[in-house]
Structures are given as structure tokens and as C-alpha cells.
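Quick log. Single chain, no ligands specified.
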Amino acid sequence: MRRRLVMVEWEDAGARPGWTADADIDTSALICRSVGWLVRSNPVVLAQTDGEGEWNGLFQIPKRMVLRIIDLQEPKCSS
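-> predicted structure:
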């Protein structure tokens, strides 16, 4: 089964060390983008390497944090 190469745009949680004045609190979204082979869709699991049924470099993103999934075109491999 051929997997999709995708970019996942997702909102991350964040923490800030130390004390922060009330006026300096930054509540802007922490948007991340990750690229990989879509192994699972709920939760979203990406892999860095497709090894014909085995995966390397798995990365899991909870579905509720995913903003969008964009299909990418697989690059042609030169022989």
C-alpha cells in the first residue's frame, strides 16, 4: 500500500520558563509544520522513512491539534 507524503500544519502547546509580567504574556499560537509519510490519521502519525512496511522516525500529533494536512508530490528518485 502506497502511503501519502504530506505536510501537517498543527498547533503546539508551549511553556515559558521563569516569571513573566502580566503585560508581557504572549498568547499567540505556536504553529508548527511537519513533513513525512502518513502512517495513521487519528492520531496523525508521520514517518521519516518508508521501509516497505517498516517505519523509521515516527512522530505522533494528536488529531485535535492538527489544523490541516497538505498532500505533497513525491520526488522522483534518480537511478
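The chain has a mean pLDDT of 91.
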